[in-house]
Amino acid sequence: MKLEQNDSSLIFSNTFIPDIFFTEYLSQANGDFIKVYLYLYFLSKYNKEAKINDLSKKLELPLKTIQDAIKYWEELGLLIRKNQGFIVSNIQEIELNKLYKPKITISASDMKKVAENKYRAKAIDTINNEFFQGVMSPSWYGDIDLWFKKYSFDEEVMIALFRYCFNKSALHRNYIATVAEAWYKNNIKTFSDLDIYFQKQGKVKLVENAIKKKLRLSRNLSIYEEAYVEKWHITYGYNIDVIEIALKKTTGKFNLSFEYMDKLITDWHERGLKTPAEINIHLEKQKSKPVQNKSTSDKKINYSQRQYSDLNNFYSNV
Prior knowledge:
The protein has 318 residues and is mostly helical. It has helices spanning 7-12, 19-24, 31-45, 52-59, 63-76, 91-100, 108-116, 118-131, 138-151, 155-167, 173-185, 191-215, 223-235, 240-250, 258-270, 276-288, 296-304, 311-316; strands at 79-81, 86-88.
């Protein structure tokens, strides 16, 4: 790609990037994507054509990377596709629209109350200084106000939310909103609620590690398996000594299935069984019960279409 500018004009010319690019977009973007965007931004100043093949050669990047980068910036609205070529959007206008676009979920009076709340203002100031080095993008203020309104977090919880995501190296809106939603569903509003939640999560993690060790799993549990463990430990109140009974009854008999273990453990919970002793007595009783005879054809059907909901048959064979 050839730039029709003489050397002196290029030496003394400047390309100005708005600060909002560094506070709002830089940290989340792939390095090669940033490289592509900056070069397109530079070319747009001179109204130059930007062909993908030329970009690939000039920037020494694969065509696929150039295409992915263009798609990425398009999705963020920083590039606008036209019939021929692209328009590089005005970043400052984008952020102004975010900031002043009416939000139906929060009223003007609510915004005024938030602004007048000195504790909330102090919390936002803490977030700005601790996690954004004092240069937090203006659009974050609107988001934080909305999260205060939607989730009813107190100021300490909001700061803890940003600290948690910051420590996870995931200080971006989608992740923060996901964590906030999870905390809200766990009835977290005060820092005391959050402390209790973290304590419970710590205990769940210990149970998960014990299960992995007993099953000799080298992988981490999936999010679905973790959800089962959380239900068994927090909702049902079972410790590893009870869960281990279910592990022993299922491993070796069927392919490892957390879904089936959940049916078994849920059955114990619904029967009001709380201790390993109560569960073992129940298992012995179930084992001694006679199983109803079925016809050969029925057995064939059951063999080919065996369902894990038939706990009585399972108990009789353990």
